[in-house]
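REQUEST ID: PR-0412
SUBMITTED BY: lab tech R.K.
PRIORITY: routine
TASK: structure prediction, single protein chain
INPUT:
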Amino acid sequence: MSSHATRAGSRLLGAIAAGILATSTSTTFAQTTTLGTRGGLSQTNPAITSNASPSWTSYSRSEDYPNAVTLPLQYITTSSGKKLAVLVSMPANWLGIKASGRFPVILTQTAYRIDVGQLLGTFAPSDTTLMIGGRDDYMIKRGYITVAVDAAGTGMSTGETQLIGAEEQEAYAAAVKWVTEQSWFDGNLGLAGTSYLGITSMLTAEQRNPAVKAAFTVVPMGDAYRGVVGVGGMLNAEFLSIWLPLTQGLSVGVLNAGEALLNPKYASTIVAADNQHAAAIDSWYLPTVKGGLANQQGIATDDGDFWSVRSPVERAAQINVPTFVVGATNDIFQRDEPLLYEQLKRNVNSKLVIVPGAHVQSILGLISGFGSASANTPPKGKQLLLQWFDQYLKGKSTGVTSMPNVTQFVQGYGTSGAKRFATATDWPHPQMSPQRMYLRGDRSLSSSAPTSAETAAAITEPKGASVTASRVLNNLIATVSINDGSNCSSSIVQWTLGIGGVLPLACHTDSSKVEAAQGAAIFQTPALNSDLYINGPMQADIWMSATNTDAALAVRVDDVDASGVATPISTGLLSARYRAVDASRSRYVNGVMIQPWHPFTAASAQPLVAGKPVLMQVEVFPNAALIRAGHRLRVAISASNQAQGVWPTPLQANANGNVTTIYSDPDHPSSVVLPVVPTSALN
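STATUS: complete
OUTPUT:
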């Protein structure tokens, strides 16, 4: 164990011995630290307590213009010679003639094609299609110009992409510079978008061009490795098998051929771009995927700058403009969205809203709204967007500073079927305190630590997932065959961007099936005597040994009702090889580690010694849930969650046939640390 991990383990056991882990039910504020980054250590994090009695109101105003018009396709030429495809949409009169004068501009930059976004705007002009790259008539008619750009190497833009890499980010600056040089620009630029477009907005804001005045980002990524692709030191093949073919497939073939016919002026540029995008399969896509599967250092691990360059959280503190962040409870970026807010909150006016659902479902929910308006329920996305940009791009007094600082969907809160939200002055919740629950030999979950040796639990490594990636003509094709039952779980919905949940199944919202299929070791409380409110990151501190040199732990936290339905709250995953913890970058609350930071570097790797107990400090992604009286809190531990992460091929060979033992005794007190908030804090 590294010196960092040893100190962390000693500190953990010292905290247990000192008995400082009881839940606080007072209104005093917890002493919490931030979570560090690659480039920065944890810092003291006094709670923000201002704006304590806010409420949501629906903001709207009438149109300034009766129409919107999109100008013909244009190109920006970057300093390196790349050509970026651009579509500009402007206010217009009844005849469709563009309005004269200068306007604030909202910039979106996408890997999903600006012409597809234009089509979306045509079919859904009344909703906020700007957030998914579409022409947004709602905003344009209220006096905004929208500029949509295909990111370098995607869509109709030239270049061989290395998605979200340094060259692409240089092109973000070129797009901003181009906007500032246009005669119709009034000097006020906003950045907006969802998913990839939210990521580009964060990274562009970090470049700090003085023309940028505000950003509005929906489900953006924070840490490309820890939050998404390398969760727990594993490879998120399920996500990659969908996302990589999507970005590459939208950039080649019939769409480009059609655009070349429609735009003869730029036909040669579009054809050249199509060829470059096909070539990127062999120059970047396949080498990257195969490098990850082969356990290549810097791809399968967090060495070098491959992942840090693509991680907005590393430089989010540099953002100097008001920034609105929307996240989701089962999003692919579930871990990251609160961390982005945490980096922003002391520097600029920033807001965090966490809505229910997986990636696609959360976007659709934001567009359609979340039911009846209330003081705690955020309005529709188009109203939030207009309110934010009217304040910061048009100088109107719209009340954005009095919006709730943090608004979260709380699972289990409210009446049946209602989408219930709660507001707070900060994240982590100012009243959150750590409560440790021990995994006992009788499979109970208890606040009491074991005092003598208890029966250990055993879990086994399933057959490894099969992952393939190849070129088929000009398209990238990738497939994953899951063998541990997690292809019917909340995780498959999460890591397929919500696509796996389009046809809802009971196993998507009841973890019992996947836990049974995996032979999970299940620990749960008795039926609760009172409601339990948890809100924030969680940490599973599991003492284990293995029969092989490689093993993993997958942790599920569930809310189990009286009928036995186990509603998933959150998950965690960790390869034992990468169990080392950097205590100086981990999060503590009242002196207790509650969110570990793992280096995931080749130098930090620690193969297991057969039969030797080690401490696994598993990060369980943050969420908010109210477990009702009469329900049980469950922690289920298995040896895999292939929907979330698979082994690189060499490590899979090491893990095959492994049996893991989970301990519960005074020397190895396995436990989970929960972020408990008094129920009185619910609105």
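NOTES: The two ends are 44 Å apart (CA to CA).
REVIEWED BY: pending
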